[in-house]
Amino acid sequence: MTESSDSRLLLLSGDDNVVIARTNLTRGDVVTIDGVQVTLSDSVHLGFKIARCDLGSGQKILKYGAVIGSATAGIRRGDIVHLHNMQSDYLPTYSHEAGAAFTKRTER
Q: How much of the chain exceeds pLDDT 90, in percent?
């Protein structure tokens, strides 16, 4: 994160559009995300994802610099990003063959 960001939040990769709560946070707490002060609308548990910026429905969620899912609804900066507003983009199966076939289809 930048120097103007909150030490209670962790940015895993500069490409990420979510940050991680390094501690439990309470509804109404003010955190700084990329220099912008945001009042949390919900309590956030340790390890949960928080939107680093506004995200539109269908937009990819990036964590560790990789896509981990897609927004199923609009998400505002400072909102929790979890199963109620995102879906996983992981394969529904763990078989190597399905993963290899999926990878070959998407490489272009």
A: 75
- The SS3 assignment for 71 reads strand
Question: Does residue 36 contact residue 78 with C-beta atoms inside 8 Å?
Answer: no
User: How many Cα neighbours within 13 Å face the side chain of 11?
Assistant: 18
Give the pLDDT confidence of 44-63 residue by residue, as tens digits.
999 999 999 999 999 999 99
H or E element in which residue 9 lies: strand 9-10
Residues sharing a CB contact under 8 Å with residue 40, sequence separation 6 or more, in sequence order: 25, 26, 27, 28, 29, 30, 31, 50, 78
Q: Which domains does the chain have, with CATH numbers?
A: 9-106 (2.30.130.110)
Question: Cα 63 to chain center, whole Å?
Answer: 6
Q: Which amino acid is at 67?
A: V
Q: What are phi and psi of 21, to 5 degrees?
A: -70, 125
